[in-house]
Specification:
Helix content is 82%, strand content 0%. The protein has 12 helices and no strands.
Length: 287
């Protein structure tokens, strides 16, 4: 029944966008996957910008290397080992941050180095794994499966529920940690939950744009929105709009005969173009 629902939505996309490229099922599934992951990446991206955690998302993204490598080593599907390792790394960074006097950048740098080194070590031991890891390096949203789309629906539901209950508390934690504690906000629980959900969003974003560009997918729409918005609420919605528009535009442009570029890279190029326009807007209208 769930897969039939995915098929129904794909048929709607094909009818809504009467382009030749969008009549192919894999393009419809790719667009559906992007429509699901883009808003989550945008909302998480605004919070990453406010929490100054851009390096965190980069470390989680690179954990995909180790996740794929361990999955191939243990004969387990990388679709299971990647999100599992990403959540472990995300929670590990938060746990060490809470229990040590080290700076966040230092802790993330250690975890970043550990996951990349682990992935490279497995690849050096089993060279055949390099071919399987290349897809995660560049991303390939065109290979998304119905099961992954269903998983994205589930993640979106959990993420929206978390934001419904924790949105204002996360803002307070980001602005002033001591003030949040004074208001009896359970800071550790919210930070751990946010880290776990952010890790899963990053891993699904790796599917879309690859390890090399995953941070850009989170940060660029949020940065552009910050140039255009005068409040955090407006920044959030503008970031979501930019992320969805760039995801759709990037996928459609990449499929054109005259372009024929990687979908993930084209999506990020569109987001960067919007960021450049937002800089001009900020300079001339908000200076």
């Amino acid at each position: 029944m769930e897969l039939g629902f995915v098929s129904f939505l794909c048929d709607l996309i094909g009818k809504a966008i009467p382009l030749e490229c969008m009549q192919m099922r894999f393009m419809q599934e790719a667009l559906l996957g992007l429509i699901l992951v883009a808003p989550m990446a945008a909302v998480a991206g605004t919070q990453v910008v406010n929490f100054r955690m851009a390096f965190f998302s980069d470390a989680i993204g690179h954990s995909a290397f180790a996740g794929v490598a361990f999955g191939l080593l243990l004969s387990i599907s990388p679709n299971l080992t990647m999100p599992l390792l990403a959540v472990i790394v995300g929670l590990g960074i938060m746990a060490v941050k809470q229990r040590s006097g080290l700076s966040t950048d230092t802790i993330i740098g250690v975890f970043f180095s550990a996951v990349v080194a682990s992935g490279l070590a497995v690849v050096s031991r089993y060279p055949q794994a390099a071919r399987d890891m290349q897809m995660f390096l560049y991303g390939d949203i065109l290979t998304i499966s119905d099961q992954e789309i269903v998983a994205l629906f589930g993640l979106l539901a959990v993420f929206l529920l978390f934001q419904w209950f924790a949105f204002n508390k996360l803002i307070c934690i980001g602005l002033n940690l001591q003030l949040a504690k004074a208001h009896r906000i359970r800071v550790m629980i919210h930070q751990y939950l946010f880290a776990a959900l952010l890790s899963l969003i990053v891993i699904f974003s790796v599917k879309a744009v690859g390890v090399l560009l995953v941070t850009a997918m989170l940060i660029t729409p949020a940065a552009a929105a910050r140039n255009l918005a005068s409040s955090y609420g407006r920044m959030l919605w503008i970031s979501v709009l930019i992320s969805i528009v760039c995801a759709i535009a990037g996928l459609l442009l990449s499929a054109q005969e005259w372009m024929r570029t990687a979908a993930g890279a084209t999506i990020v190029i569109c987001a960067c173009a919007v960021f450049c326009v937002s800089l001009i807007f900020r300079r001339h209208f908000r200076s």
